[in-house]
Amino acid sequence: MLASRVRRACSLRSVEMLHLRRLSTVNDRTPPSAAPDASSPAGPPPVRVAITETAGRGVFTTRSIGSGELIHSAEPVVCHPSVDDLPAVCYSCLKALDGSEDRRTAAGVAFCGERCMGRSKGSFEVEMGIDFSAYHDYCRSHGLKYPLLVKRLACMVLAGETRVECLDVLQPAYLPMGMIVQIEEEFALLKRAFKAAGLMDERIAFLTKNWYTGILSRIRINAFRVEIIGRSYESLLSMAAASVEAETAVGNAVYMLPSFYNHDCDPNTHIIWLESAVARLKALREIQPGEELRICYIDASLGRDARRALLYQGFGFQCNCPRCLSGD
Ligand SMILES: C[S@@+](CC[C@H](N)C(=O)[O-])C[C@H]1O[C@@H](n2cnc3c(N)ncnc32)[C@H](O)[C@@H]1O
User: Fold this and answer.
1) Distance 214 CA to ligand 1 centre (A)
2) In the CATH scheme, what is the code of domain 2-75+255-270+278-325?
3) pTM for the whole thing?
């Protein structure tokens, strides 16, 4: 019963490779403040990032939160549609396109409206000037999604839409040797695409293997699989829990504040996407002031051994949540 409730409620984070090892230290850079974004409820989010006793940094409430309350929302730092969904969703916000108001481009991808087209204009122009077909083919044939996020970040950096160090504050994953070899192949393909487009060496000087590896290792632990429910928040609140399962993954995204949420196999918070890649963090029960907010990274309906193996292999940690410690 508990398991099925949690399974419906928790978000599934994609596990692209299952060969990670636990990180022995956490990133010790200054945690970010809980700054509001345009789509948050009024006022700053009622949370702060602080050090936990057992799981590095985490997110804590600053006031009591009611069951079902929208705690805050977050715009992605970077997101990218799945290769197969490229023609069907907005290239910028991942919203499903209905064909009526899409701004379809010569490249075959489309934007849901002027706002998305405008805000991604610079990086889109960079991206469209480069032939990424070999890189995309490689990602498709190897079933890889995260390198698409690295490609988009590189284009955003070139367009001046973000900084080279924009994800440095996030915890990186340990990358095993076997994966380094694959990363070298990916990186060589990406760099070749930029060079073939005739970009001056000084413009792509940031595009080193170390940058690529650093970004990819942070994306690996912190990326979310965006599963859009596609209904308004109000209708979601009145829906039976079972309906919440009608989700579709349309792409991947990395956020800032949501990346500091630790995992729990019986979470008090979950993350949902209603129409676009804007993430909504929502309370699953009453939460007391000062309590840590935790989401579920995996399918919590799995048995204890399977959950722990998945978290260890996919995210590199031994889960120390109360449910695991109780033996459930
Ligand atoms: C997405 S990050 C969460 C934020 C992270 N604690 C930080 O300091 O940036 C995921 C990492 O947090 C730690 N973590 C999250 N949940 C945990 C749990 N239930 N038990 C142990 N470590 C956990 C692990 O090191 C994991 O790789």
Assistant:
1) 18
2) 2.170.270.10
3) 0.84
